[in-house]
Design a protein that fits this description.
This protein is α+β, with helices and mostly antiparallel strands. It is 39% helix and 10% strand. The chain has two domains: 10-53, no CATH class; 75-136, no CATH class. A hairpin with a 2-residue loop joins strand 1 (10-14) and strand 2. The radius of gyration is 22 Å and the shape is elongated.
Length: 137
């Protein structure tokens, strides 16, 4: 339901294209300005002037071989996962916003993750992924 309700909020031009309904409601609004996090799966929006809005990149994307996999940590690793998540929370916003110098902060971040046991978590996740791929391929 990316654009609202078909025939109420938008109309479908064909399988891959949508546009505004013919007459906008009194309390007019626009979906063009909304963030569309799944735009690759969405139909292309066509404005009244015929211009297309939205994802226009390749449609022959390759699906990840891990698509559908969900990691569930073993019970004994859950405290380790939680410790690693706390470290990520500690650094995430400050690194992404530029508050911390990556040259200084990233080595500390990685060091704290390794000390908290991230390598065990990665190994467990990789093991589960390999088993999942063997079962689902």
């Amino acid at each position: 339901m990316l654009y609202g309700v078909e025939s109420v909020d938008y109309r479908r031009l064909d399988v891959d294209h949508v546009t505004n309904i013919d007459e906008l409601p009194a309390n007019e609004w626009s979906t063009v300005h909304w963030g569309q996090p799944n735009c690759q799966a969405a139909s292309t929006w066509v404005n009244a002037d015929g211009t297309e809005v939205g994802y226009t990149g390749p449609t022959d994307v390759i699906t990840s071989e891990a698509y559908g996999f969900t990691y569930t940590p073993k019970i004994e690793l859950r405290p380790t996962v939680n410790s690693c998540l706390e470290i990520v929370r500690k650094y995430n916003n400050a690194l992404l916003s530029g508050y911390l110098d990556p040259e200084e902060a990233l080595p500390l971040f990685r060091s704290e993750l390794h000390a908290a046991g991230i390598d065990k978590v990665i190994a467990d996740k990789q093991y589960q992924l390999e088993r999942w791929k063997a079962k689902n391929s």
